[in-house]
Each structure stands twice: as C-alpha cells, then as structure tokens.
Write a structure and sequence with these properties.
13% helix, 3 helices, alpha+beta, 2 domains, globular, 8-stranded antiparallel beta sheet, 234 residues
C-alpha cells in the first residue's frame, strides 16, 4: 500500500472517530431503517380536522370538547379533511352498552357510504352488541374479513387503546397493546375474502392508495374517542 493511500486511510479513520466517539460507525440508513424512523405525531382531536362524509360541515350530534370526540346517538359518519396513505393511527375509545361503531381508513367519497370503500376497524361492545355473533365483526376485527380473537377488549364504559398501521399493502390492527389482525391488501387471500363478502359489490373497495380516516356514527349508542393522533410513514 502506498504512502498516500495510508495517509488517506488514517485521515478517514480519525474523522470517523471524531464524529462518533469510540470510533463506532454510525448505522447505515437503509430503506428499512428509514421506514422505521418515526415522523412527527399530529393530533386529530380538533373539529377543524373533520367534516361529514360527502359534506363540508360536521353533522349534528358530534361533539368536540376537551380533546374528546363523542356522540350520544345515531348520527351521520365523519371523516378527516386530509387524506393519508401510509400511516400509524393511535387513539383511545370507549363505547356504551350494546354500542357499535368503527374506524375507516383509506376511504374515498366515490360511493354513497364510506364503508363501501374504506376497510374498517370494528368498535363494539363485544358482550351486548348485536354484531358479536362472529369474530369477523367483534372489536378490533377488519370488519367482515379478518377476525379478532376474543379476550382483548375492555367492557362497555371502559377505555380501550386502538392502533392501526397501514404501510403500502400491509395492515395491522392492535387493541390494548395486542396485535389482533395482520393482512395484506390486494393479496390473493384478501381478494378471496372480499369476493366472499358483501364488499364484492363495490369494485374499488380497499384499493385506494390514499384516503380519509373515518368514524362511523350511524349506529345507535354512545361513543367517545380521545388522544387520537396520526403520523405519516415514508
């Protein structure tokens, strides 16, 4: 090795040691590590973030106060004004006795109802709700498609923690720190499940790469949502 080459190697090593104490090389930022880098969280608690489904105003019956979104009866659905593609959504939810609601993601306004386009994270009183007959429609399920195992939801009137991760075609549903559901949008398994469900009637169901977050309101019963926040993923 020539003198000039050795000198350059020494200088490079000294520079690395100065930048990284102990001479430890900083990790290379690959696509995988970039995808894991958290972006800034954004609260969705304010009324300014929301509108009615296919309407510019918020339907009567929804209340936004002290960081909590709530309803006490059947009302029209709401959705975020902004659209999200890859994201992580977190919130706490509390439902009344026999209550039934849901969270939609990547929803569009091309159809008459939000659930005809956006997959749904089910919110339910699993003990008293009418939709409790099958794991496909219990709390945390990907409604009608991927079941949620029992034993992870809190009783009506108590707070639950929900987390939804959507990254490309990959989706995760979490409930009270337990991953209930994991699936791949547009996969052969997904297509087969959609074809065997009521969603087969809407050809664009679940296929939007970007869309609104929605909250279902058109079922009777009370619902409260607090600490709702989202961060977009690369």
């Amino acid at each position: 090795m020539g003198h000039l080459m050795r000198s350059r190697l020494v200088i490079a090593a000294l520079s690395l040691a100065a930048c990284h104490p102990g001479g430890v090389r900083a990790p290379v930022r690959t696509a995988a590590t970039i995808a894991q880098t958290p972006n800034q969280w954004r609260s969705l608690a304010a009324a300014a973030n929301w509108r009615g489904y296919s309407a510019d105003s918020i339907p009567s019956g929804w209340t936004f106060a002290d960081g909590t979104i709530s309803k006490t009866r059947g009302v029209r659905d709401i959705m975020t004004r902004d659209e999200f593609g890859n994201f992580e959504l977190e919130l706490e939810w509390k439902i009344g006795k026999a209550g039934n609601s849901g969270l939609f993601y990547r929803a569009t306004t091309e159809y008459d109802h939000i659930y005809w386009s956006g997959p749904e994270y089910q919110l339910l009183d699993d003990v008293n709700g009418e939709d409790n007959k099958t794991p496909l429609t219990r709390a945390g399920a990907a409604y009608g498609l991927y079941p949620a195992p029992d034993g992870h939801s809190s009783p009506f009137g108590e707070w639950n923690r929900a987390r939804i991760v959507v990254n490309g075609n990959h989706v995760e549903h979490w409930l009270n720190d337990f991953k209930l559901v994991e699936y791949e949008l547009n996969s052969p398994d997904w297509k087969a499940k959609v074809a065997a469900s009521k969603f087969k009637d809407w050809p664009h169901y679940g296929l939007a790469k970007k869309g609104h977050i929605g909250i279902q309101g058109d079922h009777p019963g009370t619902l409260e949502i607090r600490n709702i926040r989202i961060r977009e993923l690369p």
